[in-house]
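Encode chain A's predicted structure.
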Amino acid sequence: MKKCCLLLFVFTIVLFGSEAILTAQEVTPKAQMPMHNAENSRHQKMRAMMRWRLVEYLDLNEEQSANFFPIMKESDETHDKIIKERKEIVRNIMDTVDDTAVSVKEIKKYVDRLETLKNEMQKAHNNFLKKSEKILDDRQYIKLLIFEDKIKEDLFLQYRDRRARDKSKND
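Encoded structure for chain A:
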């Protein structure tokens, strides 16, 4: 009787255990999940939040928005292209800097390209500001110039406040 109950118990566990294994869904790597693709990355969400805050801060009307956002998109695309190339160059430098078979002269070419990219980034930013100045009124343009610093300050204050709240909860 005990053997029969034990056998029935083991059989039940095996039956339900195998059913769970057979019906389990295949785990999809994060890179293949829709929420983790390039279009919905944190970077894109952050960019969207920044645009929303910028529109709110500059108090853009519809006409200004219609003219401003294509310029901003163009600037973002240029910025992204330069950043991508910069990352590749930095990766190449990191891979070759300790390799004695690679000459310093060759590595300096990478460094020179980094300097060129830095200048291109500054030119692209200045171009964005010049085009924006034609669309925005004077106060909006000044606000645009300080927007990045204002956002950084706001984020820092939020971070500081959150840390203070978390610290007070733990005390």
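Residues 37 and 122 are 29 Å apart (CA to CA).
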